[in-house]
C-alpha cells in the first residue's frame, strides 16, 4: 500500500516481447538466472541466457508414467506444467562437499567447505513449487539446526513466480491448497495472458526487491481488464486439475491403516526405483559418503540425495529395518501425507504430480490414498 | 559443537583406551585444542564419531556427566567404522560432533524407585544416568540394575558394578543367556528378572536400553508389576547420517530418533513400537 502511495507500481503490464528485459534486469543486478528450458525431450531447469531459452510454444502431456512434449498452436512462454526437475537441486544440491580432512604429522585437521555461490534468480516458479520451497525452508532453516549449505544458497534468492495457465494431467495443487496462483513467497509473479491477439504478462511485486526490479521494466499500467483476464487464466487452470485428493482427516486415516492390504497391492507394482523421491520437490533425505585419495592423506565428506526406497536407507548393524517394498512405499507415502504434519506442521505433498508422472509403473499417490479411504481397516495398536 | 555448521566435526585426541570385552572398547577423549570447557552433556545423549578416512557413526556417551572434563565412549566393534574406531590408540585423533538428542529424565525421577533394565552394550548409554544419580544418591529410593549379556565374557564394567552395589546401595541382578558351569550367577533372559524385584510401582521410573525385542518384553513384565508406560523410558537405535534432523534416515513414524530421541517416554511411541518395518 505504502509503495503505491509513494507512486511506485506494484502491478504492471509487460509486453511478451519485453520478457527479455526482465532477464536482462536480473542479470544486471548480479543474479544468475535459472528457469525452464527444453532438453532431452523434457522441460527441465537450467541456466537461462535470454528469453529464447524458454520452452516457448511447447506444452507437455502428462499422466501416470507418461510424459510427452507437444507443440502448442500459440507462442506461449509458460504453456506447460512442471517437469522432472525441481528447484531443490539448486538449494539442496544433489551432491555437495561438506568438508575435507588432511592428515598431519600427528593426527589430522578438518577444513570447512566455504563455497559462496553467486546470487540466483529462479524464473518460472509455480505456486506448488513455492509451497515446496517453504516446506524445505522449514526443514533446513527453521528447526533447532540450520543447514549452512541451504542457507548460503537460499539467502538472497530472487523468485519470479508464474501463475499456471495449464493444469498438467497429474496436477492436484487445488486439493493441496497450494495453487495454481502464487499468493506469497515471491519477489515477482507473472501471469501470462494470450487474448485477442494480445500477448502480455501481468506482473506483481511481492517484496521490496521485487518492486525495485519492477521499476526497471518497460511497462504499461495494469488496468481492471488486465487483472480480470489474468484471474480468468488462473480460474481456468484451477477448474482443470488432472487429479484430486481428499485431504480431510488424511493424516490420521493413514496412521490408523498401517496394516491395510492396499500396501501389499501397491508393493506388487512398486519397483523401489526411487524415481518418485528424486523428482519430488519436498523430499529432503540425504546420505553422506567419505572419499579418500590414493595416498590416504586426504579425505572428503560429501552429502548426496538419498531415498527411503533403498534397502541401505534403514540399515543398522542387524540388517535393513525396511526390507520389504511394502514397508518402503508405506514409509514414503505416510511420511508425505501423514507424519509430515507431526514433524513440520503441514503436508509434505504440494500436489505437483511429479511422482505420478515419473513413476515407471504409474503408481498414483492420490489413487492409493483414495483406496485406503474407501475401505479403511480398523487396525488397533497390535503389531 | 560448531554453532554455525553442525555437520563439521571437531578434532579430539585419545587420552586412554581400554578393552572391556572381546569386542567392546572404551575410549577417553580430550579436545585437541585444549579448551578447558570440557564436554558437558546429559545422560543418554550421543555423539557422531568420525574415524579419519573411514566414516562416522552415532555412539552414546558413556562417561560421567558430573565430570565433563573427559569424554568417554564405549563401542562394540560390529562393522567398518566401529572396528577401526576400536583400534585407535592413545595419542590418535578422531572427529566428534555433538552432543545430540534427548536424555534420561534423571532429575524428574528424583523421589522415585528406579529400575534400569539393559542388555549388552545397552549399559553404556545408561552408565551416565547411574553416575548422575550416585552424585545425589539420597534423592532416590531403591535403584535396581537388571543387566543381561550373551555370556559372562560379554558383561561390561563388572568391576565397577560390584563397587556400585556396596558404595551406592544398588540392587544389581546380572544374568547371561548361556554360560559354562563355573558361572555362579543367573542364566536366562534379563526380562525374567523384572518380576522378582520389589518396588513401589506408582513411584517408580524405569529406564530401558537394549535390543528392541528385549525392550518389548521388558515392557510386558513392567506392566505386570504395575509400572505404567508414561513412567518408562527407552532408548531407540536407527540409522543416522547427520544427527540434526536433515538426513531423514532415523525417522520412526512421526519422530526423528536423532532429535526427538534417542530417549523416548514409552507412551509417546507405544502405538508404533514393536510393529514390523516402521
Ligand atoms: C543414538 C545411537 C547411539 C548408539 N550408541 C552406541 C554405543 O554407545 N555403543 C555402540 O557400540 N554402538 C552404539 N550405537 C550403534 C552404532 O552406531 C552402530 O553399531 C554403528 O553405526 C555401526 O557402524 P559400522 O560402520 O561399524 O557398521 P557397519 O555394519 O559396517 O555399517 C556400515 C554403515 O551403516 C551405517 N550404520 C550401521 N548401523 C548403524 C546404526 N545403528 N546407526 C547408524 N548408522 C548405522 C553406518 O553409516 C555405517 O558406516 C548407537 C546407535 C545410535 C543410533
Ligand atoms: S508427493 Fe508427488 S505430488 Fe506430492 S509434492 Fe511430491 S512429487 Fe509432488
Ligand atoms: S512408487 Fe514408482 S517411482 Fe516410486 S519407487 Fe515405486 S516404482 Fe519407483
Helical/strand content category of chain B: alpha/beta
The profile of the biggest β sheet of chain A is: 8 strands, mixed
Oligomer: heterodimer
Widest sheet, order of strands of chain B: 10-9-8-7-11-12-15
Pick out the low-confidence regions of chain A: 1-7
Main sheet properties of chain B: 7 strands, mixed
Percent range of helical residues of chain B: 10-25%
Structural class call of chain A reads: alpha+beta
Mean pLDDT of chain A: 94
- What's the total number of strands of chain B? 15
Order of helices and strands of chain A: HEHEEEEHEEEHHEHEEHEHHHHEEEEHHH
CA-based gyration radius of chain A: 23 Å
Please trace the helix and strand order of chain B, writing H or E for each element.
Answer: EEEEEHEEHEHEEEHEEEHE
What does this structure look like?
The complex is a heterodimer of chains A (383) and B (278). The model of chain A is unreliable at 1-7 (pLDDT under 50). Chain A has helices at residues 2-5, 19-28, 88-91, 127-140, 148-154, 173-176, 208-215, 224-238, 250-255, 262-269, 275-279, 325-344, 354-357, 365-374; strands at 11-15, 32-39, 42-47, 58-63, 66-71, 95-103, 108-112, 120-125, 158-163, 188-195, 198-205, 220-221, 286-292, 298-305, 315-316, 319-320. Chain A folds into 2 domains: 4-238, no CATH class; 250-374, no CATH class. Chain A is an alpha+beta fold. Helices cover 31% and strands 25% of the residues of chain A. Chain A is globular and about 65 Å long. Chain A has 14 helices and 16 strands. Chain B is α/β, with parallel strands linked by helices and 278 residues long. Chain B has 3 domains: 10-100, Translation factors (Elongation Factor Tu (Ef-tu), domain 3, Beta Barrel), CATH 2.40.30; 113-232, 3-Layer(aba) Sandwich (Rossmann fold), CATH 3.40.50.80; 236-278, no CATH class. Helix content of chain B is 17%, strand content 30%. Chain B contains 5 helices and 15 strands. Chain B has helices spanning 80-86, 123-134, 158-167, 212-224, 257-260, and strands spanning 10-19, 24-31, 46-51, 55-60, 71-76, 93-100, 113-119, 143-149, 170-176, 186-187, 204-209, 232-235, 251-252, 255-256, 263-265. In chain B, the strands form 3 sheets. In chain B, strands 10-9-8-7-11-12-15 form a 7-stranded mixed beta sheet, sandwiched between helices. In chain B, strand 8, helix 3 and strand 9 form a beta-alpha-beta unit. The radius of gyration of chain B is 18 Å and the shape is globular. The mean pLDDT of chain B is 95. The complex binds flavin-adenine dinucleotide and iron/sulfur cluster (2 copies). One iron/sulfur cluster binds next to helix 11 of chain A.
Amino acid at each position: 500500500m505504502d509503495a503505491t502511495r509513494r507512486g511506485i507500481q506494484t502491478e504492471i503490464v509487460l509486453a511478451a516481447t519485453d520478457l527479455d528485459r526482465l532477464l536482462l534486469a536480473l542479470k544486471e543486478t548480479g543474479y544468475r538466472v535459472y528457469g525452464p528450458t527444453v532438453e532431452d525431450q523434457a522441460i527441465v531447469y537450467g541456466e537461462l541466457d535470454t528469453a529464447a531459452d524458454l520452452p516457448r510454444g511447447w506444452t507437455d502431456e502428462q499422466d501416470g508414467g507418461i510424459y510427452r512434449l507437444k507443440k502448442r498452436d500459440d507462442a506461449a512462454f509458460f504453456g506447460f506444467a512442471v517437469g522432472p526437475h525441481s528447484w531443490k537441486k539448486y538449494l539442496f544440491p544433489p551432491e555437495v562437499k561438506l568438508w575435507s580432512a588432511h592428515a598431519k604429522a600427528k593426527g589430522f585437521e578438518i577444513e570447512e567447505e566455504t563455497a559462496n555461490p553467486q546470487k540466483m534468480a529462479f524464473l518460472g516458479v509455480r505456486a506448488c513449487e513455492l509451497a515446496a520451497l517453504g516446506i524445505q525452508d522449514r526443514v533446513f532453516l527453521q528447526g533447532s539446526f540450520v543447514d549452512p549449505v541451504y542457507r548460503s544458497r537460499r539467502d538472497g534468492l530472487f523468485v519470479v513466480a508464474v501463475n499456471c495457465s495449464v493444469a498438467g494431467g497429474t496436477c492436484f495443487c487445488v486439493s493441496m491448497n497450494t495453487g495454481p496462483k502464487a499468493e506469497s513467497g515471491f519477489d515477482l509473479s507473472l501471469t501470462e495472458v494470450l487474448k485477442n491477439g494480445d500477448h502480455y504478462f501481468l506482473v506483481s511485486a511481492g517484496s521490496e526487491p521485487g518492486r525495485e526490479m519492477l521499476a526497471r521494466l518497460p511497462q504499461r499500467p495494469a488496468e481492471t481488464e488486465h487483472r480480470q483476464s489474468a484471474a480468468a487464466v488462473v480460474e481456468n487452470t484451477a477448474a482443470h486439475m488432472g487429479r484430486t485428493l481428499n485431504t480431510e482427516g488424511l493424516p490420521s486415516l493413514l496412521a490408523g491403516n498401517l496394516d491395510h492390504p492396499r500396501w501389499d497391492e501397491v508393493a506388487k507394482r512398486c519397483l523401489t526405483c526411487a524415481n518418485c523421491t528424486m523428482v519430488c520437490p519436498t523430499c529432503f533425505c540425504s546420505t553422506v559418503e567419505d572419499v579418500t585419495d590414493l595416498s590416504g592423506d586426504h579425505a572428503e565428506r560429501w552429502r548426496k540425495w538419498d531415498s527411503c526406497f533403498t534397502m541401505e536407507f534403514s540399515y543398522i548393524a542387524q540388517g535393513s529395518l525396511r526390507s520389504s517394498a511394502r514397508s518402503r512405499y508405506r514409509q514414503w507415502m505416510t511420511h508425505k501425507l501423514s507424519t509430515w504434519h507431526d514433524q513440520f506442521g503441514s503436508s509434505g505433498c504440494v500436489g505437483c504430480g511429479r511422482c505420478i508422472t515419473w513413476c515407471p509403473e504409474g503408481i498414483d499417490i492420490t489413487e492409493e490414498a483414495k483406496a485406503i479411504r474407501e475401505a479403511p481397516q480398523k487396525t488397533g495398536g497390535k503389531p | 559443537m560448531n554453532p554455525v555448521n553442525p555437520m563439521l566435526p571437531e578434532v579430539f585426541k585419545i587420552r586412554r583406551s581400554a578393552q572391556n570385552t572381546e569386542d567392546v572398547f572404551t575410549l577417553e577423549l580430550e579436545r585437541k585444542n585444549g579448551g578447558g570447557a570440557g564436554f558437558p552433556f546429559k545422560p543418554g545423549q550421543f555423539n557422531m564419531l568420525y574415524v579419519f578416512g573411514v566414516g562416522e557413526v552415532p555412539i552414546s556417551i558413556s562417561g560421567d556427566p558430573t565430570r565433563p572434563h573427559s569424554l568417554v565412549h564405549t563401542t562394540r566393534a560390529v562393522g567398518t567404522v566401529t572396528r577401526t574406531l576400536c583400534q585407535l590408540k592413545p595419542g590418535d585423533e578422531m572427529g566428534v560432533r555433538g552432543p545430540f538428542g534427548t536424555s534420561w529424565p534423571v532429575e524428574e525421577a528424583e523421589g522415585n524407585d528406579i529400575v534400569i533394565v539393559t542388555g549388552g552394550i545397552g549399559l553404556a548409554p545408561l552408565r551416565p544416568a547411574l553416575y548422575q544419580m550416585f552424585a545425589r544418591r539420597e534423592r532416590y529410593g531403591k535403584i535396581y540394575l537388571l543387566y543381561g549379556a550373551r555370556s559372562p565374557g560379554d558383561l561390561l564394567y563388572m568391576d565397577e558394578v560390584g563397587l556400585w552395589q556396596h558404595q551406592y546401595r544398588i540392587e544389581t541382578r546380572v544374568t547371561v543367556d548361556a554360560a559354562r558351569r563355573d558361572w555362579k550367577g543367573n542364566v536366562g533372559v534379563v526380562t525374567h528378572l523384572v518380576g522378582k524385584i520389589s518396588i513401589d510401582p506408582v513411584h517408580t521410573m524405569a529406564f530401558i536400553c537394549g535390543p528392541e525385542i528385549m525392550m518389548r518384553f521388558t515392557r510386558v513384565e513392567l506392566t505386570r508389576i504395575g509400572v505404567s508406560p508414561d513412567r518408562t523410558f527407552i532408548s531407540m537405535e536407527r540409522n543416522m547420517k547427520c544427527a540434526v534432523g536433515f538426513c531423514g534416515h532415523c525417522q520412526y513414524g512421526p519422530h526423528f530418533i536423532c532429535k526427538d530421541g534417542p530417549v523416548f517416554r514409552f507412551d509417546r511411541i507405544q502405538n508404533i513400537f514393536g510393529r514390523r518395518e516402521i
